[in-house]
Write a structure and sequence with these properties.
The complex is a heterodimer of chains A (about 120) and B (about 120). With about 120 residues, chain A is mainly beta. Chain A contains no helices and 11 strands. In chain A, β5 and β6 form a beta hairpin. The chains are: A mainly beta (about 120), B mainly beta (about 120). At the A-B interface, β4, β5 and β10 of A face β5, β6, β10 and β11 of B.
């Protein structure tokens, strides 16, 4: 049981390049999230998914797209990277079912550090 | 919209001393409240959580937090800190409206420094 894993761990991009960040969870969780973490800003929600085939915008969705084709995977895409997207990206998941607090608790991956030059 | 305020950006505490990290939230409904800890270069680890019931909740690593509805606060405490507690601490509010908006709103974090 690996929990939440993220690929890659670190990436350097040039402005205008595209890339996809992969999040995978093996806990059969319904809900998945992408956050970005910037110095002094805490974590901010980019997009989330309440189930396979569904996605929704969070607080800072501009410049990102997501897909949830399989329940266990949540992909975050940058079509044309900008220096403002330099950040650490965290994926999280939660059960969404079961007793309170257990179903509402999010489990985080180790993060992907992205540098856009 | 919900918000979380952690008033202290940095806190320095001597090893063995007690600790209290402050968290205030703004949320229209009964909140799900969380404290996470992040060591340098690492992901987030859940320390404790609250939704209902006893307002004093116990977590891992000897941490506890008290929910005070009248003050909209959820402060984190530890009676005696260890050098290994040095890290970034985040308070978060969960908004789960069953079909509407979803996710966690985080505070900006408190950086805890432990003095020998």
């Amino acid at each position: 049981n690996a929990g939440v894993t993220q690929t890659p761990k670190f990436r350097v991009l040039k402005t205008g390049q595209s890339m996809t960040l992969l999040c995978a969870q093996d806990m059969n969780h319904e809900y998945m999230y992408w956050y970005r973490q910037d110095p002094g800003m805490g974590l901010r929600l980019i997009h989330y998914s309440v189930g396979e085939g569904t996605t929704a915008k969070g607080e800072v969705p501009d410049g990102y797209n997501v897909s949830r084709l399989k329940k266990q995977n949540f992909l975050l895409g940058l079509e044309s990277a900008a220096p403002s997207q330099t950040s650490v990206y965290f994926c999280a998941s939660r059960p969404g079912q079961g007793e309170n607090l257990k179903k509402e608790t999010q489990y985080f991956g180790p993060g992907t550090r992205l540098l856009v030059l | 919209a919900q918000s979380v305020t952690q008033p202290d950006i940095h806190i320095t505490v001597s090893e063995g001393a007690s600790l209290e990290l402050r968290c205030n939230y703004s949320y229209g409904a009964t909140p799900y409240l969380f404290w996470y800890v992040q060591s340098p270069g690492q992901g987030l680890q859940l320390l404790l959580k609250y939704f209902s019931g006893d307002t004093l909740v116990q977590g891992i690593k000897g941490f506890e937090a008290e929910f005070k509805r009248s003050q909209s606060s959820f402060n984190l405490r530890k009676p005696s800190v260890h050098w290994s507690d040095a890290a970034e601490y985040f308070c978060a509010v969960g908004f789960y409206s069953g079909g509407g908006a979803d996710g966690l709103t985080f505070g900006k974090g408190t950086h805890l420094i432990i003095q020998p």
